[in-house]
Amino acid sequence: MRAMTDAADEPDTDETHPSTAGGRLLELQRIDTEADQLTHRRERLPEREHLSIASESLTEWERLRSSMRARMDELTSVIEQAESDAAEVAAHKVRLEAQMKTVIAPREAEALMHEIGTLDEQTDALDTRELEALEEQSEIDDRLTEHLRSESTLRDDVGAADEALQRATSEIDAELAELAAQRVERRTEFDESMLARYDRVRASSGVAVAQLVGHRCEGCHLDLSAAEVDDVKDEAAGATGVAECPNCGRILVV
Ligand SMILES: [Zn+2]
Questions:
Q1: Exposed, middle or buried, 128 (CB in 10 Å: 0-12/13-18/19+)?
Q2: C-alpha 209 – ligand 1 centre gap (Å)
């Protein structure tokens, strides 16, 4: 958590209050880096992935349930239609049979017989259609009963995954709030121009402040020439107390 153990003259506690400008900048940078890492972790929590998988399973389960229920409704319509058509055909047949009793001419009787035969065929076809629909309904009903059994498990999974995610994010959020408060306090220790410089370099490089260790800038990991080291040391001895890396432009703590 505290990457700043190089500031050996400072006690490694939360009360650390570096006396030099460079030390204060490194502390500000530490806070911002830690907040960046937490934000990154918050976005990539495994709990987020778990919730997404559980939610997808539930959505797929709901989709299947809807499609089965829709098919059940369709079949109900098929059955109702077949029954109402069959009733019409039956009524028609009753009328023809009554007519049959009054017919004398054999050709007319033959025509009626033929028509009654056609109605019987229609009735058979309607009965078959209704029976098939009833069979399919019964089969879907069994599947639907089985399907509904997994509902509570799926909903519990989503609830548990959601809770786990809330827990994980709220822990991180508490840490982020703490860091934000520290950050506000630290920033009061700098003047406007240093803050503007820090923010500008941080926006372009992510990490604004680096230490010079030997000849090497710890920000870009490039070595400075002896002349450059002399220059940055001169610069750091000036009013701001820090220098600028000639290679990466980061604020260099010498
Ligand atoms: Zn550099």
A1: exposed
A2: 9
Ordered by where they begin, the domains of the chain are 17-189 (1.10.287.1490), 191-254 (no CATH)
Q: Over the chain, what is the mean pLDDT?
A: 93
Which pLDDT value is given to residue 6? Answer: 47
Output the CA 252–ligand 1 centroid distance in Å: 7
Q: How far is the CA of 210 from the centre of ligand 1 (A)?
A: 7
CA of 247 to the centre of ligand 1 (A): 5
If you measure from the C-alpha of residue 253 to the centroid of ligand 1, how many angstroms do you get, rounded to a whole number? 11
Q: What is the pLDDT of residues 76-98, one digit of tens each?
A: 999 999 999 999 999 999 999 99
Cβ-proximal residues to 109 (8 Å cutoff; 6+ apart), any chain: 100, 103
Cβ proximity of 35 and 176 under 8 Å: yes
The answer to whether 21 touches 238, Cβ cutoff 8 Å, is no
Q: Say how many Å lie between the CA of residue 1 and the centre of ligand 1.
A: 23
Strands 243-244 and 209-213: unpaired
**Cβ pair 115, 107 in contact under 8 A:** no
DSSP 224: P
35 CA from centroid of ligand 1 (Å): 22
Residue 251 near residue 197 (C-beta atoms within 8 A): yes
Distance 40 CA to ligand 1 centre (A): 24
Percent of the chain whose pLDDT exceeds 90: 91
